[in-house]
Amino acid sequence: MEKLILKINSYIGYLNKECGLSVSVHFDQNILYCLPQKILPMLLEYNSHTNPYCIAVKRTKHHECVLYQQSIIKKGVRESFLSMCHAGVLEYVHPIFKAEKAIGFVVVSGYRNKVSNCKGAKADLWERALSDKEIPKELCDTLIPPLCIMLEQLFECYAKETANEFNQLIQFLNEYHNNVTLSDLCAHFNRSKSYISHMFKRECKMTIKAYCNKLKLADAKKMLLETDFSITEIAFDTGFNDTSYFIYLFKKEFGISPLKYRKNNMN
Questions:
Q1: 58 and 152 together in one domain
Q2: pLDDT tens digits along 53-65
């Protein structure tokens, strides 16, 4: 079980780092809930786009991102295709099937039209963070299908019939970590604050707030390296309303200030 997921993670890392492709994997939520609890967090690492524009968009329009992803799965298209998401990002999409049913897709993202069709405060980031090069479809058609085959094998072998409540919770947090409260979780899962807090801490060995902060800090690291946004802008776009608190948490987590981290890792 672990060998297969490690191969999947290693291959996605290869595609992202060595091939220069921004690859993420997205699934029907119900099937994610049925994976063994040990596997899900390893897969969720690649369950979201990592370019700064998408990170910023999700601060206020994450639900639209989720609905767009679900609409792709519902189409049930069996071949790879090019698409544009609700936020104006061009993508290469390759479906994933289980027992003849579409359960998810792999996406190569991070591209845009040469002429801006994005308006509002994020228009500048849309131009700077996304590539205006053509999507390398031929390269994707060669490299992405093997990943889809491995993911199909994973779900054929390990997806169970019964949904795991903790899986549902952690998947929701990975989707909405930059703008979620305990009250939101209680309303969504129809559980008490005490129940959700204790279940999460028991299974994850940390609080929900600490878990969300780790995810937001990971988003911040990407924005520090891929944009010239100020520390305050990055703090806000990744879900922190207090810049001083963001700097404190970043330094505590990584042993260095956000500004110094950016300077030390500039090309």
A1: yes
A2: 888 887 777 778 8
Give 23-75 pLDDT, tens digit per residue. Answer: 999 888 777 777 777 777 778 888 888 788 888 887 777 778 878 888 888 88
Same domain for 144 and 207, yes or no, is no
Q: Which of 163, 197, 223 is the last residue in one of the domains?
A: 163
Note whether residue 172 is domain-resident.
Answer: no
CATH code for the domain of 159 = 3.30.450
Residue 150 lies in a domain: yes
Q: What is the 3-state secondary structure (H, E, C) of the chain?
A: CHHHHHHHHHHHHHHHHCCCCEEEEEECHHHHHCCCCCCHHHHHCCCCCCCHHHHHHHHHHHHHHHHHHHHHHHHCCCCCEEEECCCCCEEEEEEEEECCEEEEEEEEEEECCCCCCCCCCCHHHHHHHCECCCCCHHHHHHHHHHHHHHHHHHHHHHCCCCCCHHHHHHHHHHHHCCCCCHHHHHHHHCCCHHHHHHHHHHHHCCCHHHHHHHHHHHHHHHHHHHCCCCHHHHHHHCCCCCHHHHHHHHHHHHCCCHHHHHHHCCC
Shared domain for 183 and 159, answered yes or no, is: no
